[in-house]
Specification:
Layout (H helix, E strand, L loop, with lengths): L1 E3 L13 H12 L17 E3 L2 E11 L5 H17 L8 H12 L5 E7 L14 E3 L5 E3 L3 E11 L9
Parallel strand pairs: 1-2, 3-7
Antiparallel strand pairs: 3-4, 5-6
Helix pairs in contact: 2-3
């Protein structure tokens, strides 16, 4: 059996420190795995993995002037999307586009883009060994990598410009 243990809002990105993962592993499988010393039956062994966090900014460009209430709802739903994502799960820009369309309407031109942050000194400016960024702007993380929301940033003519 193999698991990830994630804690909502208890640790940054929901990822517990290794000592917590070790304690949970001992509790679940026992100190000597397979002997029924933990919560699982005799003969059951396993491992609990700690995912690697990948910090991501979401840039949202909406034509026109969305209200502050619309922006807040979009931000809340994007945050909820990131809380539901699992390690190694692809993250599609279209998912955020659909969130935006459900709030402001499909007739208003809007787009979303992901920017991996915290790796600005690398060339290219994202860790190739952690994530593949597709030409469409989708994120495809490697095994055991968990995309985590760093910030939702609204851009446009009168707002902050996205990085290139």
């Amino acid at each position: 059996m193999e698991f990830y243990v994630l804690f909502d809002d208890a640790f940054p990105c929901g990822i517990p420190p290794q000592h917590v993962v070790d304690d949970i592993t001992d509790w679940l499988f026992g100190e000597h795995q397979g002997y029924g010393e933990g919560q699982v039956e005799i003969g059951v062994c396993g491992k609990i993995y700690t995912p690697v966090p990948l910090m991501v900014d979401v840039y949202i460009d909406i034509e026109g002037c969305p209200s502050s209430a619309e922006k807040q709802i979009i931000e809340d739903q994007v945050t909820a999307l990131f809380k539901r994502i699992c390690p190694s799960m692809p993250l599609r820009a279209k998912q955020v586009d659909l969130i935006i369309a459900s709030i402001i309407g499909a007739e208003i031109n809007a787009s979303a883009r992901f920017v991996v942050v915290g790796y600005e000194d690398q060339i290219p400016p994202y860790p190739r060994d952690l994530v593949y960024v597709s030409p469409c702007g989708d994120l495809e993380p490697e095994c055991d990598v968990l995309p985590c929301l760093n910030d939702v940033i609204f851009v446009g003519p009168d707002m902050k410009k996205p990085p290139c």
